[in-house]
Protein 1
Amino acid sequence: MEIIQVIDNDNGTLIADNGRVADTFWRRFRGLLGRSEYERGEALLIKPCSSVHTVGMKFAIDVLFVSAQNEIVHIIEAMPAYRFSPWIKNASYVVELPAGRVASCAVKIGHTLSLNKQKM
């Protein structure tokens, strides 16, 4: 699985340095299921994606909905387990983060992201 860094271009913040990309049916289907926690620095980039759910999860997550131009178009902070997000029309992909990460990084709607591949 591809590892990436997620960076907020507008404030220069490293949002995640251990991001994983879920870009196949099975990786998107599995998502974060089976995990008991989410560590600071982790992220899951799901593409293509314009809505998410937390059914079967054991913890809350922050969710960034991002356009094809890498602009954040919608944010859900601390989405609890067993919930469904709305469908976000302009979203091309989603970045799932540990709950509280959006606030601690001062991420806002309209900010753009950089996704940098990491060497393993």
Protein 2
Amino acid sequence: MIGTALDIMSQVAPPRGAFVDHPVGRTFGPPHDRPCNADVLRKTLAEFPLFTHCGEIRALACEWPADGGREWEEDLRAELLHER
């Protein structure tokens, strides 16, 4: 499981969990940021051999921009509503 809500992941106790410190709903990063999206997936897959027990959650070294930038939200909204 790849998730962004560590408190919920801890309660659910997935067999193997990768925690990404991104906003809920943006697990793989901002939309259309393919390098970031691929980086999250690559790091997750690299963790598989490192799990030692069931229920373990490993934090990935993926950080959201420090400024909390959400400029992508308007673009995504427009795309979803076909306003482009």
Protein 3
Amino acid sequence: MESRHLSIVVRRAPAEVWAFAGSDEHLPEWAAGLAAGALRREGDELVVESPMGEVRVRFAPPNDLGVLDHDVTLPDGAVVHNPLRVLAHPLGAEVVFSLRRLDGVSAAAFEADARAVAADLERLRALLEA
């Protein structure tokens, strides 16, 4: 299984970045690859209209470690674990998403996913640094 770590540096405090990125309210503003439409909360899960159809998202519990890992349950029932971390950085915070190429995913599809994640991270930076 191939992994790729995509990251950006945001000139804001790590706690601010973590709070914004993990907020239900702000998720559709920056994570277009995940939340392309309406979302609603059902218990500890978000039900999200995504480019893949309706998915369920479960984030790691609130923490002081900058962990925003989340499991996405796809329309076919498959669950994808997505490591997402907000780390302290000399200029503010570094946001790191670990993208994993699952079995059956072509190289071209993996590259497209990487581009989509990079675009989402850039939107996150733009919103927080505006």
